[in-house]
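Suppose you are handed only these lines of text.
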Amino acid sequence: MGEFDLIARYFNRPASHIQQGLHEGRSVDIGLDIGIGDDCAVFTPTAGMQLCISSDMLVEGRHFFSDVSPEALGHKALAVNLSDLAACGAAPRAFTLALALPAVNEAWLEGFSRGLFALADAHGCTLIGGDTTQGPLNICITVFGEVPRVNGKSGALLRSGAQAGDDIYVSGTGVDHVGQARLALEILRGNIKADAATLEAVRHRLERPTPRVHLGVALRTIATSCIDISDGLLGDLGHILKASHVGANVQTHWIEGSQAFALSGGDDYELLLTAPPHQRDALQAVSEKTCTRLTRIGVIDAQLGLRLLDSAGLPLLNRFNSFDHFAT
Ligand code: ADP
Ligand code: MG
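From them, the structure of the protein bound to adenosine-5'-diphosphate can be written out as follows.
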């Protein structure tokens, strides 16, 4: 099968699939003028909105195991990108897909595209173009989302808005605990011994993360800063602190049981956010509306630095490092 047949069969879907998208729960015309098949895709942003754009690349051996299910990989490749939109409070519109494939494997392409489009359709995010080439397996997606422009300024939720006194929250704790993706990774790598049931209980957190898209959109007018957790909670909180020129005191008593990776794991794709205390009721309402648990884990402080506190409020030694691609 040639490049063009491959694109036509697995990635170019009938127009009925792509004329409509979901925008903040409403079905809307996505304004796609030219989709797959010409030299560029052309689409018109919604009036009054601006585009938020992000790319994430998944490299075999670095970001996923060679034997991972192609369906899960299709899901995750888009999920990690939608998670970046969520962190900015952006509603997904469209994406492009750049694929390097070692060979044309139809069973793989069928599974990959199924996982990819299931998540895309769930969020009304349309595949509008891409590139396909032969090479070591590599998946690069660029997503386009929208936020309103408010009073001449961007309505996007940024890392830089945290203020002293703000509460710090993490999404999805409890059943979907931060750190579980890393636990699954360490079990799969053979670094941690665990039985099959334990692995099954956490594996989906690594392989099928849930991007907190609806939560992110709802937070846009409530949170002062936000980031998605891809490198580990403390490391990503560090990005907020640096961008906002503030410090933080973080509680550790919410970490359940022996969840060693809660603070330093990575690949969680939960949202980490800050909001002033007067927004607590609003956040509770958002949490209920989006069926996403929010746990308050600390407070932003004017004093720079990140301090971990035990259940008595006493400082703990910071021995947690987050994941850095170039440090290992
Ligand atoms: P060009 O050579 O002009 O870059 P290509 O031949 O690479 O164009 O691609 C032909 C069309 O198919 C373009 O519209 C491109 O966006 C689309 N396309 C290529 N690969 C993919 C893919 N993996 N997923 C979606 N669309 C793709
Ligand atoms: Mg091309």
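What can we learn from it? The longest strand covers residues 138-150. The chain has nine helices and 16 strands.
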